[in-house]
Amino acid sequence: LYLDRPLAPGQTVRLDPPQAHYLFSVMRRAPGDAVEVFDSRTGTYAAAVAEASRKAVSLTVGDRTRPLRTPPDLWLVFAPIKKARTDFIVEKAAELGACRILPVQTDHTNADRIRRDRLQAHAIEAAEQCGGNFVPEVADIVRLSDLLDGWTDRRLMFCDETLSGVFAALPDERGPWAILIGPEGGFSDAERARLRAMPQSHPVSLGPRILRADTAAVAALTLWQSTLGD
Ligand code: SAM
């Protein structure tokens, strides 16, 4: 269970209503029952239910059982698509070890708003489900051009659907990276020209077929992890 506050042994934490409902009514946990908790800051802890009722559930935090395991410094930058597919992208990015998820508005993006809290909840669920103890942050949506204006030396795996052909190997360069996936309509010519000209950018093909953006995100994350991940 993910708790959005720094944890320490001996602490008593009162759960917020959705988590209290989940533990009491769905999981039917009673006082004394063991629960594993993590905070995405210090690690995973053994905890026990101290109080459980319809009104309140609180836990006593015990020893730390695992230190925090942070994924490599990899961002997934993507243009949101239909709701269910955007949810899928966020979930898979959390499972496949992105450390930050940044939705961007591009020239051809249809969705110019996102429900950040909903997407963050998907990232939390995915982290809980895959046994990790790190939750990637879902950032607010920004314009791609604004993001690029402030770009640092972070390397960019620019997934360019117009590069037909086989996947070109990524350079064996460790350090901060980002993967960029475009919208259903692809990147505009102006965006593509700018992205190709950036010295940090490594334009890549994900193969000879045009993939849907959600498939492309999974493929790119997997390829990056297999080359540069840990
Ligand atoms: N509308 C575009 C077209 O028909 O050419 C397709 C865009 S594709 C559905 C969405 C995004 O997935 C692209 O912008 C790109 O980032 C990524 N993508 C899909 N297939 C790819 C490929 N074969 N190589 C590299 N990137 C790909």
UniProtKB/TrEMBL annotation:
It catalyses: uridine(1498) in 16S rRNA + S-adenosyl-L-methionine = N(3)-methyluridine(1498) in 16S rRNA + S-adenosyl-L-homocysteine + H(+). Residues 15-61 form the Ribosomal RNA small subunit methyltransferase E PUA-like domain. The keyword Transferase applies. Its EC number is 2.1.1.193. SUPFAM superfamilies: alpha/beta knot, PUA domain-like. Its main location: cytoplasm. InterPro entries: Alpha/beta_knot_MTases (IPR029028), PUA-like_sf (IPR015947), RsmE (IPR006700), RsmE_MTase_dom (IPR046886), RsmE_PUA-like (IPR046887), tRNA_m1G_MTases_N (IPR029026). Pfam families: Methyltrans_RNA (PF04452), PUA_4 (PF20260). It is found in: Cytoplasm. It comes from the Bacteria. Residues 72-225 form the Ribosomal RNA small subunit methyltransferase E methyltransferase domain. One of its GO terms (cellular component) is cytoplasm. One of its GO terms (biological process) is rRNA base methylation. Keywords: Cytoplasm, Methyltransferase, rRNA processing, S-adenosyl-L-methionine, Transferase. One of its GO terms (molecular function) is rRNA (uridine-N3-)-methyltransferase activity. Belongs to the RNA methyltransferase RsmE family. Specifically methylates the N3 position of the uracil ring of uridine 1498 (m3U1498) in 16S rRNA. Acts on the fully assembled 30S ribosomal subunit. This is Ribosomal RNA small subunit methyltransferase E. It comes from Oceaniovalibus guishaninsula JLT2003.
